[in-house]
Each structure stands twice: as structure tokens, then as C-alpha cells.
Amino acid sequence: MTETRLWLIRHALVEENARLIVYGTMDVELCPHTLQAQTAMYAALARRLPRPARWLASPLIRTQRTAAAIFQAGYPEQELEIVPGLIELDFGTWQGMEHHEVPPLLQQPPHAFWPLSGTERPPGGESMADGIARMGETIERLARTYAGEDIVALTHGGVIRAAVAHAVGLSPDNALHFSVENISLTRLDRLERGWRVACVNELPGV
User: Fold this and answer.
1) pTM over 0.90
2) Which end of the chain is more exposed for a tag (fewer CB within 10 A), N or C?
3) Fold entry, domain 4-202
4) How many whole angstroms separate alpha carbon 129 and alpha carbon 33?
């Protein structure tokens, strides 16, 4: 039986000013102080990840720099394949706004754990429902392309929730109940019978 293991890692915490806005697919820097303070967690993550593995990242620099921090912490440096489908959910014209500016623009009540409901689509952007469809296509394609391999993918909180939702058939609003913290690990295994969830939001060294 072919088993493909997808190791999804959310990027490191972004810098303080970026946390004040809805940044979505914007390129923002990582927080240098947190990177330094969490060196032990990066070392634990480097030990936890499979060797060998194929390494992928979203087009945004914060995922690629998170991969670099894992390599610096002890995982042998790998070539990163950039996969557009792994990019964060697009908040359209709301990107760059401060968080408090978004609620008056909503057409539906926001989710308790996300700036908007699972089906609301920002102007020019994506809803969580759109993200689930995109990530479903992305992870199914990766599982076919790299069948039987371990795949480490540096990506984003929204799309990790979307990937889990696709794997187990969750609604967009139910997907948003998952906590996906920075540098946490989520693993999805693709078997012939379907997807199996091995872990969600596992923090290295904890």
C-alpha cells in the first residue's frame, strides 16, 4: 500500500507591525526576537522531521525564511520547491487594513476564531470555502506527484486549516475551529483509502 506523508508547518511569527494588519498574501518579515528566543524549538523540529524528504514552500518569503531557520537548527539544507497553491488565503482589498477596520465591511457575522465567516469572500479575495477547494486540489496533486514520499511543506495557518478540512470533509466554519500556531506541525497521510490525520498543531519540543 502506497503511503504519502505530508508534513505541514506554519511559518514563524511575523514582526510586530505586521501583526497589526490583515496581511494575507502580503510579504512581511519574521520577528527576529522570536526567532532567537525559539532556537530550541527549531532544533526539536529539525530532529522531528523525516530524512530524506522533499521540501516545498509557499511563494511568500516568511515560509522560506522559516525553512532556513530549520536548516540552521540542524536539518540538512534542502532545495525548496516553490508551490503557488500553498500560499495563504487572499483577503483581497482588505489586505493592509488594521484588524479593527474589517468588521464594518462584513456581510456576515465573523467567525469566533477568524476575521470573517467561512463562506464570506473579501472583494477580490478568497473565502475559507475557496481555500478548502484550492488546498484540496493542491494536496491531492502533491500526493500523486510524490507518491510514497515524505513531503515537508512550509505554509500558512489558513491553508493548513483548509487542508485538514479537505482531508476529513469539514465545513468551512468547522475548519476555523482548529488552532494552528506558528511553527506548529500538522501531518496528513494519503493512503489508497483516503486521507488520515496523524497530528494537528503539534508544537516542537512541547
Assistant:
1) yes
2) N
3) Rossmann fold (3.40.50)
4) 35
